[in-house]
């Protein structure tokens, strides 16, 4: 069992998707799921003009995912993150995009296990919160089990607190990031084997998981499960996580209740100059598969971008969806 209970289920870091509005919305659906930021580069944090560490206090437990390969820069960012109140830091050793490779971080770091270990060690030396790593099972032609074990052993040597494994290898040349999420075959058995061979390392699995039934099967072998796009496209899946995976018997909120709970946050953000569509885009899938779902999406898509759009747009969209009845066991 994981020493980080929240890691039992987490929502994957997704660039351009899991921003602070998305995470606030997700937290209304699940109190216990672990949430991740989008990957943030050390350069953005240290030299960018924006506040790349901003989050809402309600988002905890929250992990900052860092992109970088300079141990000193990562250590500086780790200190800043801990000071801001993040619960954990995760180093990205799995993203295969060209812009990430050009910055010498992401999946290409799998070929540099010593450097990855140095990065983790530098962060662990300056913070008390957990430092974890997210990786693939291999890159390009370097996809043997032994190659993966070399990375894991380097991480164990510096006391890495946990590992999240996307159960596909990444092709650094020839495939787009989207294709790298779909074309390389999944190999769950390799991740199970890795956990069996390194039982002392907290380990979670990511990649292609679509249901909580599948998540429960993975939890027979591993400490945690991470879902990404399925949660984003069908966010109400999160409303079942606390009951189904954490054993919490609290009442499951209805979809309408979740949106109504979101309204005060929307008003507050609009008052600070936020654009309505930046928040509502994350909610489009909340009614997936129900009568009125298309009308909900259409009304928000057609109106949330208009100048001066406020919560009345959300309320009008909500009125187009029949209130559902929930039956609790």
Automatic annotation (TrEMBL):
Enzyme active site: 95 (proton donor)
Binding-site list for FMN: 13-15, 65, 134, 166, 206-208, 228-229
Reactions catalysed, as given in the entry: 5,6-dihydrouridine(20) in tRNA + NADP(+) = uridine(20) in tRNA + NADPH + H(+); 5,6-dihydrouridine(20a) in tRNA + NADP(+) = uridine(20a) in tRNA + NADPH + H(+); 5,6-dihydrouridine(20) in tRNA + NAD(+) = uridine(20) in tRNA + NADH + H(+); 5,6-dihydrouridine(20a) in tRNA + NAD(+) = uridine(20a) in tRNA + NADH + H(+)
Entry cofactors: FMN
UniProt xrefs under InterPro entries: Aldolase_TIM (IPR013785), DUS-like_FMN-bd (IPR035587), DUS_fam (IPR001269), DusA (IPR004653), tRNA_hU_synthase_CS (IPR018517)
Its job: Catalyzes the synthesis of 5,6-dihydrouridine (D), a modified base found in the D-loop of most tRNAs, via the reduction of the C5-C6 double bond in target uridines. Specifically modifies U20 and U20a in tRNAs.
Protein name in UniProt: tRNA-dihydrouridine(20/20a) synthase
